[in-house]
Amino acid sequence: MSTAETRYQEGRSREDFRHYDDTTPAVVREFYRLNHTHQTVSFNRAMREKWLKLDHAEMPVWDLMVELNKLVDDSDPDTDLSQIEHNFQTAEAIRADGHPRWFQLAGLIHDLGKVLWLWGEPQWAVVGDTFPVGCAWSPKIVFAEFFGGNPDALAPEYQTPCGIYAEGCGLDQVMISWGHDEYLYQVTKNYLPAEALAMIRYHSCYPIHREGEYGHLMNDEDRRLMEWVKKFNPYDLYSKGHTKPDVEALTPYYRELIGEYFPAKIRW
Q1: Pick from 234, 151, 185: which is nearest to 54 by CA?
Q2: For the chain, what are the domain ranges?
Q3: E strands, 57-163, in order
Q4: Of 241 and 168, which is predicted with more confidence?
Q5: In terms of Cα–Cα distance, which of 236, 173, 235 is closest to 204?
Q6: Rounded to the nearest 10 degrees, what angle do helices 220-238 and 83-96 cross at?
Q7: Fewer CB atoms inside 10 A, N or C side of the chain?
Q8: Which helix (H) or strand (E) element contains residue 267?
Q9: Chain mean position to CA 188
Q10: Other CB atoms within 10 A of residue 171 CB
Q11: What is the pTM of this model?
């Protein structure tokens, strides 16, 4: 849900984004306290069992995007724009730089997994930075001090560098904290190129793609795909300082783009 504070500001420099410190809005700090307390291994297994049957709905991608416009992301210190405005900002920045249509599409839909909130999940289980669970938490995760309240902190098997995983096993074998990224990856994995899917699946995993953590769990294919995630990240993050998009004017172009890659309806 939105707050009384206005986080969206046009024309900001790159240094003005992702400040997680004493200046962070209280709603964002509370979000991460809840997220880091409740994102346990058992919770992640339960969410995958609950949602990855993809039996909740069958509907067009565009209709879901319009539905998601009700959400403003409490985990984001940089914007309180609606989701469709942020999605269009991201896609338009990618398009302006001449990237392929599949890249533009990844920018347009990358946050659609946030529909989980509309379907009853709390925001701490849907949005925010993601991180591996089942192994030691990196101190570079934002507000890492809040992991002190997570029950997995008392499980020695989860508190080693590899935890329940094998070194070099590949991120496909690693549970990343549950949220919109993993959900949308599973929804779209039969329709998009691997590079676009990596952008969707890992765009919130700042401990890996920005901080360089958890390299001991990655394989060569992960490292290749993470370069695409890094290319995508500036468009997701820094487009939040751009002018608000004209959603009505842009709609025909992006509806056609969706139709190029997706059937009329897909399973959610």
Answers
A1: 185
A2: 22-267
A3: 58-59
A4: 168
A5: 236
A6: 110
A7: N
A8: strand 266-267
A9: 14
A10: 23
A11: 0.88
Question: Identity (one letter) of the amino acid at 139?
Answer: P
Give Cβ neighbours of residue 108 (< 8 Å, ≥ 6 apart).
65, 87, 88, 90, 91, 254, 257, 258
N residues, the chain: 268
Dihedral sign from CA coordinates of 86, 200, 149, 50: positive
Measured in whole angstroms, how far is the alpha carbon of residue 179 from the centre of its chain?
Answer: 7
| pLDDT (tens digit per residue) in 120-130 | 999 999 999 99
Complete DSSP assignment for 35-59? HHHH--HHHHHHHHHHHTT--S-EE
pLDDT of 4 > 90? The answer is: no
**C-alpha distances out from residue 149 to 144, 158, 163, Å:** 10, 14, 19
State how far Cα 226 lies from the chain centre: 14
- Return left, alpha or beta for 39; rule: phi > 0 is left, psi -120 to 50 is alpha, else beta: beta
Quick check: 111 and 86 in contact, CB under 8 A?
yes
* Residue carrying the six token digits 């995760």: 141
> How far is the C-alpha of 154 from the C-alpha of 237, rounded, in Å?
35
Q: Is 260 exposed, middle or buried (0-12, 13-18, 19+ CB in 10 A)?
A: exposed
Confidence class of residue 3 from pLDDT cuts 50, 70 and 90? very low
Is residue 180 within 8 Å of 128, Cβ to Cβ?
no
Pull the structure tokens for residue 257: 């783009």
Distance CA 263, CA 49 (A): 25
DSSP 8-state assignment for residue 164:
T
Average pLDDT of the chain is 90
Kindly state the tokens that stand for 256: 């056609």
Q: Are 151 and 110 in contact (CB under 8 A)?
A: no
Distance CA 97, CA 239 (A): 12
% of the chain exceeding 70 in pLDDT: 88
